[in-house]
Amino acid sequence: MRIVLRYAVLIACCATFEAHAQIYTCTAPDGTRIFSDEKCGPDAKIVPGISTKSRASAKRPTNKAQRVMRSPAELEQLLSACNAGDMKACTEWTHGGGPQYLREQERQATLACERGSLEDCERRYCMDGMTEECRRRVLEAAKIAGDTWYVRSQRPRAQGGVSYEVRCAVAGARDLRDAIVECAGLAGPDRCELIATRQRFARFDQAAASFCASGT
After folding, report:
1. Cβ atoms < 10 Å from Cβ of 9
2. Calculated CA dihedral for residues 147, 152, 156, 160, nearest 10 degrees
3. Contact 199/208 with Cβ under 8 angstroms?
4. CA end-to-end span of the chain
5. What is the pLDDT of residues 58-80, one digit of tens each?
6. Which pTM was predicted?
């Protein structure tokens, strides 16, 4: 049985495996952290704090007193160290309330996304790229969007006009692709410029759609 999970979500699974199997971790060729109950590669390391022994009975002494609940700031620091390969930090994160904290963050992001927060929709549903769930959520939440793109942010330019940050949302294309489109204040055939290619368009939506259709 092999479990492949990305970023912080993988740590939450440690609590599920705890006291049921010896768990190893290693890094896949694509950089993904792998947790497995078998040696998953030449760099496999045992995850500390997880035992093959069955759970202690109520009559046996437990080490619950050693579990210190960490503050959100401490959990963020431990998670950062864990993702950098510090297995002791992984264990402290798990025993310090990390999985519960992660679940609460996800719950809050889900609620905020449903209320229309684009940032929270991205945080909750787009960790694995532009999946169909991510695509549906962000296109619903974005204030400006087309069939294959949406605006993540916009700001006025010092020389007039608007600068847009665009992200592609093409069905079936999971890679996250972003572009900047700058549009002058006055209408014209070359009003909007796609910064990545220096192409010019009469309208912003044409520039965004062209970039996302190019696949580059």
Report:
1. 14
2. -30
3. no
4. 37
5. 455 555 445 788 898 998 898 88
6. 0.64
